[in-house]
Specification:
The chain is of the alpha/beta class and 215 residues long. It contains 9 helices and 11 strands.
């Protein structure tokens, strides 16, 4: 189990905090807006209302004791940069910061963020490469929330079975079939072991399916 400090509980930050908690990690979620803190209070380990721009607040929260801190605030470049710098100054081992532009990314990298994520750009680049390489797999939109999609098996799953990965409880998706070369294995059993090059047809929430791209 790892410990995470998530600062900023907008759509990105709150989804990240809740999912990290679901995966069995210790999560402290922080935001200056009480209503956002309350919205995730029952879904994470701890949630606190506070202004993370204040170094004293970060010290009180014990920021340096967390394995990783995520700065999910991206609307204000100065605000996210200040928080990122304060976290690094206090000795947080790993600081991940969200950017909203290429310039924002450069600023965060310059002040020492260990990883800068730019979700919108990264998704667009991934889609462009998939389209250019002909790797875009099938997708069926069932509703605003659920889909059936064919996705390449994550590299980290290769050599492991469906049972070992605990896929349904952990990733909230159902594997309908697995394609290996030109053969489709319908409803594979729990002992099925993934191989390099496999693709899988999955049913699940759109958010959960998108997360597979990050594994």
């Amino acid at each position: 189990m790892k410990s995470f400090l998530v600062i900023g509980l907008g759509r990105f930050g709150s989804a990240l905090a809740v999912e990290l908690s679901k995966l069995g990690n210790e999560v402290l979620a922080v935001d200056a807006r009480p209503e956002r803190v309350q919205a995730v209070a029952d879904l994470v380990t701890h949630s606190v209302t506070g202004d993370a721009r204040d170094p004293e607040v970060l010290r009180t929260l014990g920021a340096r004791n967390f394995d990783c801190a995520v700065v999910a605030l991206a609307e204000d470049v100065g605000e996210s940069a200040l928080i990122t710098m304060n976290l690094k100054d206090q000795g947080v081992p790993r600081v991940v910061s969200k950017a909203n532009s290429a310039v924002h990314r450069k600023v965060l990298e310059k002040i020492g963020a260990d990883l800068v994520v730019f979700p919108e750009q990264e998704m667009a680049l991934r889609l462009a490469h998939n389209l250019a390489n002909g790797d875009m797999l099938n997708f069926i939109d069932l509703s605003d929330e659920y889909s059936i999609a064919e996705r390449r098996v994550p590299v980290t799953w290769v050599g492991r079975s469906i049972l070992e990965l605990d896929i349904r409880p952990k990733y909230h998706i159902t594997i309908i079939a697995v394609r290996r070369d030109s053969v489709m294995n319908i409803s594979p059993n729990r002992d099925f072991v993934f191989q390099d090059g496999d693709s899988m047809v999955v049913l699940g929430g759109n958010y959960d399916i998108r997360k597979l791209e990050l594994l």
